[in-house]
Design brief:
Two copies of one chain form a homodimer. Chain A is about 35% helix and about 30% strand. About 0% of the residues of chain A have low confidence. In chain A, strands 1, 2, 3, 4, 5, 6, 7, 8 and 9 form a nine-stranded mixed sheet that branches. In chain A, strands 13-12-11-14-10-15 form a six-stranded mixed sheet. Chain A starts with a strand and ends with a helix. The radius of gyration of chain A is 22 Å and the shape is globular. In chain A, helix 1 crosses helix 2, helix 2 packs parallel to helix 3 and helix 5 crosses helix 6. In chain A, strand 12 and strand 13 form a beta hairpin. Chain A is an alpha+beta fold and about 400 residues long.
Amino acid sequence: MKMIEGGVTAAMGFQAASTAAGIKYKNRKDMAMIYSEKPCMAAGTFTTNIVKAAPVKWDQQIVKHSAFAQAVVINAGIANACTGAEGLGYCSDTAKAAAAALKVPEEAVLVASTGVIGMQLPMDKLCAGIQAMAPQLGGSLEDGTEAAKAIMTTDTKKKEVAVQVEIGGKTVTVGGMCKGSGMIHPNMCTMLAFVTTDLAISKELLQEALSEDIKDTYNMISVDGDTSTNDTVLLLANGMAGNAEITEKNEDYQTFCKALNYINETLAKKMAGDGEGCTALFEVKVIGAESKAQAVTLSKSIITSSLTKAAIFGHDANWGRILCAMGYSGAQFDPEQVDLFFESAAGKLQIIKDGVALDYSEEEATKILSEPEVTAIADVKMGDAAATAWGCDLTFDYVKINADYRS
Amino acid sequence: MKMIEGGVTAAMGFQAASTAAGIKYKNRKDMAMIYSEKPCMAAGTFTTNIVKAAPVKWDQQIVKHSAFAQAVVINAGIANACTGAEGLGYCSDTAKAAAAALKVPEEAVLVASTGVIGMQLPMDKLCAGIQAMAPQLGGSLEDGTEAAKAIMTTDTKKKEVAVQVEIGGKTVTVGGMCKGSGMIHPNMCTMLAFVTTDLAISKELLQEALSEDIKDTYNMISVDGDTSTNDTVLLLANGMAGNAEITEKNEDYQTFCKALNYINETLAKKMAGDGEGCTALFEVKVIGAESKAQAVTLSKSIITSSLTKAAIFGHDANWGRILCAMGYSGAQFDPEQVDLFFESAAGKLQIIKDGVALDYSEEEATKILSEPEVTAIADVKMGDAAATAWGCDLTFDYVKINADYRS
């Protein structure tokens, strides 16, 4: 696997464009478009919130029923959630406008929105944006990067990644971009991720690869425990790498899954590490678990604990909060068997052995916890299963960003 | 039901004492003792966290196996959690010391701790505290109030309440005190509540009354979603009111349950309204629910949503976050049927009708949300069940309190 520069335009045949449509933000781009020269197999995974934004409902239908997809239209600023029949109509209108501009079928256009809930989209501006973007589509790395910037809300960094693998004697590229947590006019932590590849693969296997992989990647991050109405991951494969189409779970499929996992894990970690107001990426590994499910429950309980997150902000080796969060997670284990370690670029230190604190150096612990990426490792000594989750610290700025009045 | 002054010493025969034992704090009281002149039926409910502090394990045994209880020894500063066999031994040592000082059986002494996890109790100071308190026991309101102050950690207000009801021609008093969320050297949000009554009632019914009532009171509050290792509610009944012992669920039992509910709900709301760093008590009523369980799930999901809590801090009528938190709660409902209202001393305002925002005045909404006690009412229009939950806002001070280094 070879890491390369780029994002959604890294794979062959994928183009992007972006524009300042004035939907909500001033003086910055707030719309992006992804386009594939050839029709794509499309896979998607979506929020489990029963309050689903209109674009989520739209995309679920497209992914399920359309033979192929060829474009994605994305806006930042308004989520198009809790907008009733009118909002769903605007998804259809957006797809129609893009279909006309790009000369593709309406049912090949996916849409995604992020931003404030309950407001209707200004369709005149959205359609003007589509008109402006269509002739500007390009396949350069810069076109991809500009799109990654245009979909940001309170993100502080654009998030993209790409890799290449060898499949059936052909070079296959997988690239992606995403946006994470927060809004200038805060309303919702909304996660959107777009991954493109020139791999040839059946639609069923593409969906299966994505559905399996999100369990270890996007579903293992949390910024504030609030599951958005808009969460969307879209994966498009246009087959232009020229490999023999993957139709079974052979070695080629596994190679692709590894590349996809690298892309998704990298994007997921970028989101967690750029959570609203955060100063540190907080990684939690639970090892020695009885089952994967147990390790997932324990690790997610730790990364979502407000008290633990505040302690990470304070560079405080407050292991009691971690043990406590494990204890109320619902998973069964023996607290008096737990070992706990903190690790970062500054070193690794055991804090607890068999549920009781060691005589560790608080100074060394603080040093380890003062790095921008810190890891807690909890060993429950019950078996061989493990899971890793990613979150961030809870800071003054998180409160500031989310308490600010919307208008 | 008649509201009266006082707390744990309001009921006949209950005495309290408190002292500065120097366990963790300087220049303030940090130990309290409750004593009943007559043996009491004891009931208790405890944390569901599988990491249970030593005093929780001790009290569970006493409540289950002892014929009666007669004293409670409480310390603030050290939680005696994650302290292994040594910590459990200290509970026994504490009970022994109190039993000797008060001339009651060791197995009639309950213990409770709140504070930092993982540290061992300084038993010399604890025993000296017991020696100092035993001769000072008194039944005045002030003795109760001083005890309520001594068990505080980062609480900003002492929390006590008492009522009287007529049962079997006798005046029965129920009183209680509690401490809420936070530590000066923060480690755990620990909830302790102690309720005393001079009612005569069987042990079985006393436990049932408590176990039922906590579902609607203590179990419906949240400050930060972190379930402590030490949560304890103890209810002592010494029978000194002289009523005929309640042994069945008759009208007298219901009268007592109403009084108990008033005490528990009041104490629970005092804890939520004095959550770490908070500026407002946030009450959430879910009405029109299909079942009580559904209403509980929805209301608790709203009060634990970090984004909603931050919006309450900002006096922002950010209804999208409330609908979102309902959506990811796991409860089934139709988002497009939901009505939502905000209410406080400043008025009541409908924000959403059938899932879509009304053209309400943001100014009026902000005015309503600027009160120290604010209520959100969500009607899901599916039936007649309802539930109320209490939380607080998420503030800069919450982060400050919990990010500060422990030592």
